[in-house]
Amino acid sequence: MITSTQFKEGSIFTNENGQIVEVLTYQHHRKSQARAVVRVKLQNLETGAIIETTYRPEDKFKEVMVEKRPKTYMYNDGNLAHFMDNVNYEQAGLPVSKIGPLMQFLTENMEVEGLYLNDRFFNIALPANIVMTITETVRGIKGDTVSNVMKPAKVNTGLEIKVPLFVNEGDKVRVDTRTFEYLERVTEPKR
């Protein structure tokens, strides 16, 4: 059993409705004389739906153990995204709709973690951030190096993000897979 005060990002449990959910964000909240509550943003692992709710600190839930296995993304046929298990080389498909917005980060031969619940492959997990290449953006102007002004850009998978003015086509950038936001420009070491 797990109480709401023990939540961490990534905790997976069965909620009061019997749904298997994952904690995306949580916040312990207390207003002066009122009782403390835990505000959480959850994702239903079966449907992908996002749920925002609050729990009392003493609320208890059944924790669910999820097995993670390394997989390689192979291709997308429109309806299914196909993955290969890196241990036994078996192939499995997941509905693109189930993976949802994370599809915008997947490139061929990319390593991901396959999530298994009761020995059934039900979703994938990506690292917290991924390095991507800018394929399309307006040209930066010399001198635009320190600024909080952002411009639109497309990365190699077609995902559109906002980047600082000094980022140009061909640059590699680190993108947060949870918020879809630019984190930093990645410079490759000189040889």
Please report which band the strand proportion falls in: under 5%, 5-15%, 15-25%, 25-35%, 35-45% or over 45%.
over 45%
**CATH domain class name of the largest domain:** Mainly Beta
Total of helices: 1
Structural class: mainly beta
Mean pLDDT over all positions = 87
Give me the Rg, rounded: 20 Å
Topology readout:
Layout: E1 2-3, E2 12-14, E3 20-29, E4 37-44, E5 50-55, E6 60-63, E7 67-76, E8 80-85, E9 91-95, H1 96-99, E10 111-117, E11 120-125, E12 129-137, E13 150-155, E14 160-164, E15 172-176, E16 182-186
Antiparallel strand pairs: 1-6, 2-3, 2-6, 3-4, 4-5, 7-8, 7-10, 8-9, 10-11, 12-13, 12-15, 13-14, 15-16
Short description:
The chain has 191 residues and is mainly beta. The chain folds into 3 domains: 2-63, SH3 type barrels (Roll), CATH 2.30.30.30; 67-125, Nucleic acid-binding proteins (OB fold (Dihydrolipoamide Acetyltransferase, E2P)); 129-186, Nucleic acid-binding proteins (OB fold (Dihydrolipoamide Acetyltransferase, E2P), Beta Barrel), CATH 2.40.50.
Notes on the protein architecture:
- It is built from one helix and 16 strands.
- The protein is mainly β.
- It has three domains: 2-63, SH3 type barrels; 67-125, Beta Barrel (OB fold (Dihydrolipoamide Acetyltransferase, E2P)); 129-186, OB fold (Dihydrolipoamide Acetyltransferase, E2P).
- The strands form three sheets. Strands 1-6-2-3-4-5 form a six-stranded antiparallel sheet, with no helix packed on it.
- Strand 15 (172-176) and strand 16 (182-186) form a beta hairpin.
- The termini are far apart.
- The relative contact order is 0.12.
- The mean pLDDT is 87.
